[in-house]
Design a protein that fits this description.
Strand order of the largest sheet: 2-1-3-4-5
Number of strands: 12
Number of helices: 8
Largest sheet: 5 strands, parallel
Distance between the termini: 62 Å
Shape: elongated
């Protein structure tokens, strides 16, 4: 029998990257072109100040293999959602510090996570007000746990399928058309040019290098750009939500995975590269915008 050893073997994954010190620019691990998403438990944020109800929700959710985070106030909820974006939120309206509807308004500035209101307020005005500012569902107290769980499953299903169906196939950024389906970036046709006149040379971003090289037209100008897999992932997150602020922690989690929320230097590096490739004036970007201290925004 072969002797078991504790050292690394050929084919073993390398340890996760550390942020290097000194002048070297940390870029983060490159994301594969076809990233395989491992099945994981959905993460639910409970925003509720009644401890007995929090315990009941926590027990029932964990029994059904959800991961659970809790917050007792609106400000705690906003901080928790920004630092570790949940897959869905169960929110009480009567919070000790700020009203739950204000929490919904703030969340909807940068988060699209489904929100189920769980409240003792039963008037139609309260329900309409919460739904109008961005809640996805409304459950009144007292409630049946089985019904709440069914509604949670429903909003999670809608969230899984909603983004890709509404995403436009081609998105203009400056002089370029970004094709999210084909993973191609081509120069947008000028007035009078034929739509197909941008050449047939390879523009796939899945295997592209870190530079912006691509095919060139008869006039010597590039007609295709190559993006790295990581750049494609970042673009996809931003273009999913045109005009909306996307938090840095949310992008880092979507692109690199849990545990990378503090590595904002990765984002700064890759966003600078994307601007150099896509913006007409990278120093004064019009489409790939930074919201200092908060995140990034794709402005059509």
């Amino acid at each position: 029998m072969a002797e078991l050893t504790s050292g690394p073997r050929p084919g073993d994954p390398r340890p996760g990257p550390e942020v290097p010190a000194g002048p070297e620019v940390p870029v983060g691990p490159e994301v594969p072109a076809q990233r395989v998403h491992r099945a994981r438990a959905s993460e639910i944020l409970i925003v509720e100040d009644q401890l007995e109800l929090v315990r009941a929700l926590d027990i029932n959710l964990r029994a059904r293999h959800y991961e659970v985070a809790t917050a007792r106030t609106g400000r705690e909820a906003l901080a928790a959602a920004a630092s570790h974006p949940p897959d869905a939120i169960i929110l009480d309206l009567g919070l000790p510090d700020i009203d739950g509807t204000e929490v919904i308004v703030e969340l909807r500035r940068w988060s699209q996570a489904p929100i189920i209101v769980l409240s003792g307020r039963v008037s139609p005005g309260d329900k309409i007000g919460a739904l109008d500012v961005g809640a996805d569902d409304y459950v009144t107290k007292p409630f049946a746990m089985a019904e709440l769980l069914a509604r949670l499953r429903a909003v999670l299903r809608r969230d899984e399928g909603g983004v890709s169906q509404d995403r436009p196939r081609q998105v203009p950024i400056g002089r370029w058309l970004v094709d999210l389906t084909a993973h191609q970036v081509r120069r947008a046709p000028a007035d009078g040019d034929e739509a197909g006149g941008s050449g047939d040379s390879g523009g796939s971003g899945g295997s592209g290098g870190s530079g912006g090289s691509g095919g060139s037209g008869a006039d010597g100008e590039r007609v295709t750009l190559r993006l790295t897999p990581t750049e494609w992932r970042i673009l996809a997150v931003l273009l999913d939500r045109p005009g909306q602020l996307v938090g840095s922690a949310q992008i880092l989690t979507r692109v690199w995975g849990p545990g990378f929320q503090q590595h904002t230097n990765y984002l700064r590096f890759h966003m600078a590269r994307l601007r150099r490739k896509l913006e007409d004036n990278p120093a004064r970007p019009r489409h790939l915008l930074t919201e200092p201290g908060m995140g990034y925004r794709y402005q059509p």
